[in-house]
Amino acid sequence: MLSTDILKARTKRRLNVSLKAIIAPLVTLIFFSAIIFFHQRFLVIKEVVCQMETSPCPEAVQSSLFRIKGTSFLSLNQKELQKEIQGTGLVDRIDFSFKLPGKLISQAQPPTISFLVKTAFSRVSPTLNFLISSDSAAPSVELDNFVASMEGKTFQLLSTGTLNQTDADSNYFLIAQTIPTKDYLTKAFVWLRSLTVSSMKPDKIYFLSDMIILKQNGEPDLVTNFSADPGEITLALQRLNQVITIKKPIIIDFRYNHPILK
Length: 262
Hints:
The protein has helices spanning 3-43, 59-66, 78-86, 129-132, 139-148, 182-196, 230-243, and strands at residues 47-52, 55-56, 93-99, 103-109, 115-121, 154-157, 163-166, 172-176, 204-207, 211-215, 221-225, 251-253, 260-261. It is of the alpha/beta class. It folds into 2 domains: 43-109, Ubiquitin-like (UB roll); 115-261, Rossmann fold, CATH 3.40.50. The chain is elongated and about 125 Å long.
């Protein structure tokens, strides 16, 4: 073999080795760059959607989910997140699914707690003499007579603001001309849940369009605006009970800035 042929063969071998030395790291670099790009573009959580049946999830649940935005779906500890959200008591179960690019979908089940509410739908509103008279009158007595004369059905009131008809009896009454809005029913659920964990143990609760009336055995009837905060009302009642040293009134009306005692 001529020396020129030997030189050409050596040069070719060296060129092949050099190309392999360049191509292998380049392919590796391109591969990992593609993984990083795909991860950042598609697997990092940028949007969170949470539904509870047909309604958005409660605000506290959404806050927990929004904190994970910007993290990778691959590093998401779903069991810990489920445990944290269920610990709020606002959901019984929550499941996650991921949709490209970067969208976490959460489906929550509302808590199993519900309240039985007997409805009394009527075009005629009940007559409450205490609203139009300066004389004290227990409104619960008038409401007792009103609901006794009405045909009503009992429903399960769920936290989602929906009514499911059931066969049962109840001491909670919903009095209205038509079925109230979901917002109203959700607020009614919040009222009932707050009252059940408070020190008050009302015998009957009446929900009207703009007020709530509670009947307590041996205690005054309590009247408040439906839009009021139940926590503030229970606190105000506790303070009133501490300062009232005279004969207990028939009515305590919280619908005004200063409670009215009759």
